[in-house]
Amino acid sequence: MEILKVIANLDNLDDVLGFIDSLLEKAGCSPKVQAQMDIAVEEMYVNIVHYAYEGKTGEAQISAQYDEETDEFTVELKDSGIPFDPVAKPDPDVTLSAEERRIGGLGIYMVKKSMDRMTYRREDGYNVLTLVKKLKG
């Protein structure tokens, strides 16, 4: 498992995505799946930046690895901010028009739909969000 630790701010988003992309490229990932992973990681990282530390500075840890046997790429985003389980967040009613829908939640919904698995746990004072995507399957 490769690990990147950054101060959770938007200035470090390019470093986070570069870290993920370098590992996806080593794994031979298709551009389509790489784009899905990038969008998912960006959405969840930006949520940490905006909400986890309530305007204060904090750290984000991004871990990633590719398992050739299962063909699964796993990304774990970890922060010590306020507890928040995006997996438990109700999906928006996408049958409603944009004007009728409540604001928020669409990004998390898109991540849930694009990943093969998305899990959350609170562990030792940390939010730990895991995203799993098959690269070739």
Main sheet strand line-up: 1-2-3-5-4
What's the pLDDT, averaged over the residues? 92
- State the order of secondary-structure elements, H for helix, E for strand: EHHEEHEE
Rg on CA atoms, Å: 15 Å
CATH fold-type name: Heat Shock Protein 90
| Sheet with most strands | 5 strands, antiparallel
Q: Helical element count? A: 3
Uncertain segments: none
Helix content: 25-40%
Estimate the strand proportion.
25-35%
Number of spatially distinct domains: 1
Distance between the termini: 21 Å
Based on the coordinates given, report the CATH architecture.
2-Layer Sandwich
CATH classification, class level: Alpha Beta
The multimeric state of the shown protein is single chain
- Shape, please? globular
Q: What is the strand tally? A: 5
Helical/strand content category: alpha+beta
User: Can you tell me the CATH superfamily?
Assistant: Histidine kinase-like ATPase, C-terminal domain
Structure described in brief:
This protein has a single domain (2-134), classed as Heat Shock Protein 90, CATH 3.30.565. The protein is 33% helix and 28% strand.
Supply database-style keywords.
137 residues; alpha+beta; Heat Shock Protein 90; five-stranded antiparallel sheet; 3 helices
